[in-house]
Amino acid sequence: MTEILTLEKVLAFLKVDLAFACCWPLPVTATKSQKIRDKIFRWCCCLNGTLMSISLMYTLGLERDNMFLLMKVGCELSAFLQVPIQIILFTLQNDRLQTIIYEMENFIQQAKSEEKYVIQKYVDKCKLFYIMTLCCITTTAVAIIFGPLLLPQPFPIEVQYPFYVDKQPLKTVIYLHHVMVVYQSYVQVCSNVFVAVLLWFVAARFEILSHKFRKVRSFSEYKICIQLHQRLLRYAKDITMTIRYIALSSIGFSTVAVVFSGLTFLSRQPLTIKAQFLTVGTSALIEVFVCAWPADYVLNMSNNVCHAVYESLWYKTKVSLQKDLLYVVSRCQQPVSVTVPCMLPTLSLNYYASYLSTTFSYLTTFRIIFAVEDGPDI
């Protein structure tokens, strides 16, 4: 008998798989020693990614006349800078994430059969795409880690150091450092799946609330639904405020990765290098879609609550309650969205389409510039 993939299993898997992403908060009951160990672990993860970023910047300074290496290192730098920056962003939002996860777990434990059905519907809807996404990102990480087996380079990342690195055990230590930082970059990209789970959960909550509004028949049931709507709006706002800068950083780094990996793929390079950077560019494009898809659903589901209110028996209620319902409808005209003023417009599938258009226009522009400067070499 095939086991059903439930939200509880998804959360348990992400909690283990994303340990090095430092995105999962400690439980509310964490002891002081656990908090200290967690802080030390986060700082060590930050330091590891920062050391690789510094090494790549040093390489850029030495090889600034090598256009191909500039594109390659620029792509890698965008991936590894994301490690310390996103760890810091998750750490700054640790208290909010703690509250969000606590409420999510409580809701799942206390959910009724109808609520569990809606949540399971969302899990079944998304599981294939996100499993394939994790497989694609894993393939990218594995291709980079085992790159030295096929490429003429001693380490997974082509980077230079201001000291001799061919002697043991230093060479092994550096190789392990490269493997670890590639793994960290991999889990940071996968952390967008964690962000997506939070958004899908909010979308499911709004759909559950819409069903309740359509079924209410009494004054007391209307009051309960209105109160649930207010609490859900606050919860949704907490989530969007928590993840918006994380989404912004993912979009920024993904844009750089797509442009430089695309230029590397279009240049005259060995097939092994092209294949490696094709997977990097594909993973970067998927990384943004992972968040844009559920964010678009949250927009629609939070707006659909007003339709559910209108389809209920509101016209049979008291005038005072009708005024409260009118407030609910008017509030739904401003749907819940992931946005950063002046930096990130509303994250949605429409935004993702414009993001693709803009990113490929950047790629085309840089391609033309480099072709003019370097002639047939690119």
UniProtKB/TrEMBL annotation:
UniProt xrefs under Pfam families: 7tm_6
Segments passing through the bilayer: 40-61, 67-92, 128-151, 186-208, 245-266
Keyword terms: Cell membrane, Membrane, Olfaction, Receptor, Sensory transduction, Transducer, Transmembrane, Transmembrane helix
Gene Ontology CC annotation, any one: plasma membrane
Main location: membrane
Subcellular localization, as worded in the UniProt entry: Cell membrane
Membrane topology value: Multi-pass membrane protein
MF annotations from Gene Ontology: odorant binding; olfactory receptor activity
Cross-referenced InterPro entries: 7tm6_olfct_rcpt
Coiled coil: none
Domain of life: Eukaryota
GO BP of this protein: signal transduction
Family statement: Belongs to the insect chemoreceptor superfamily. Heteromeric odorant receptor channel (TC 1.A.69) family.
Protein's name in the database: Odorant receptor
